[in-house]
Amino acid sequence: MTESDTDDNFRAFRVRPYLLTGGRTRAAVDLPLEALVRTTESGHASLANQSRERHQIVSLCASPQSVAEISAHLSIHLQVARVLVGDLVQEGLVATHVASTEKTTERPDLRLLEQVLDGLQSL
Predict the structure, then answer these.
(1) Phi, psi of 56 (to 5 degrees)
(2) Torsion angle of C-alpha atoms 4, 57, 100, 109, degrees rounded to 10
(3) In this structure, are residues 51 and 106 in contact, taking their beta carbons and an 8 Å threshold?
């Protein structure tokens, strides 16, 4: 068996995204990419009863993770991650924290913006 045969076998066993979400493309809970997700006590208690992907999400979120980070860590499409996390939120197994989107009249600190720009330019 060659290395390419092993890669082909691995690809053959990958689960299609629509199977992970039950064919759904939208989550019941609208989660922005930057929403922080953390595991609840109920989530910790239910780990043994979860499917592989749900188990991974609940375990990963023992420390807060964004929806985008969950997608990257699990190597799943972002929308699939949003649907799975949305299901877990509805079931109370994870909780989210979304940054406030309220408009403020305050202007951003110019010194902070300059530091961010300097940091980006140094990359």
Answers:
(1) -65, -40
(2) -50
(3) no
The terminus-to-terminus CA distance of the chain in angstroms comes to 43
Residue ranges per structural domain of the chain: 14-99
Distance (Å) of CA 97 to CA 28, 33, 66, 86, 121: 16, 11, 9, 13, 30
**CA distance linking residue 33 with residue 48, whole number of Å:** 27
pLDDT value for 66: 93
pLDDT digits (tens, 9 = 90+) for 15-65: 556 555 555 666 778 888 888 999 999 988 888 888 888 899 999 999 999
Using 50, 70 and 90 to split pLDDT, how confident is the model at 6?
very low
Cα 105 to Cα 51: distance, rounded to the nearest angstrom: 46
pLDDT at res. 52? 84
Q: Which has the closest alpha carbon to 73: 92, 82, 60, 87?
A: 60
Neighbours of 32 (CB within 10 A): 13
